[in-house]
Amino acid sequence: MESLAVVLLAVFAGGYLVLAGADIGVGMLLPWLGRDQRERRVVIASFAPFFLGNEVWLVASAGLVAGAFPGLEHRLLEELYPVAVVLLVGWVVRDMGLWLRGRVDAAGWRSVCDGAVVAGSWALGLAWASLLGSVLGGGGLNAGSVLGLPLVVLFAWHGAGFARLRLAGELAARTERGRGRYGVSALVLVVALVVAGSRLPWSEVVAEGGGLSLTAVAAVVLLPLLAASQALVWRTFWGRVDSPSYL
Amino acid sequence: MDPLVLARMQFALTAGSHFLFVALTLGLATLVALMQTRATLSGSAVHARMTRFWGQLYVVNYAVGIVTGLVMEFQFGLNWAGMSRMTGGVFGAPLALETIGAFFVESTFLGLWIFGWDRLNRWVHLALIWVVTLTAYLSAYFVLVANGWLQRPVGYEMRDGAARLTDAGALLGNPTAVLAFGHVLFGGLLTAGFFMAGVSGYHLLRRTAEVEFFRRSMRIGLVTVIASVMPVVIVGGMQYQYLQPTKTGGGDAAAAVARFTARFGPDDYMPPGMAGVGEAVMEGLWSLMLLLAVVALVKVWWGRWLVRGRVFHVVMVCAVPLPYVAMLAGWVFREVGRQPWMVYGVLKTRDALSPGVGSGTIAVSFGVFTALFAVLVAVNAWLLARFARRGPDGAALGAAPPVAPSAPAVSASF
Question: Where in the cell is it found (chain B) (predicted)?
Answer without folding.
Answer: Cell membrane
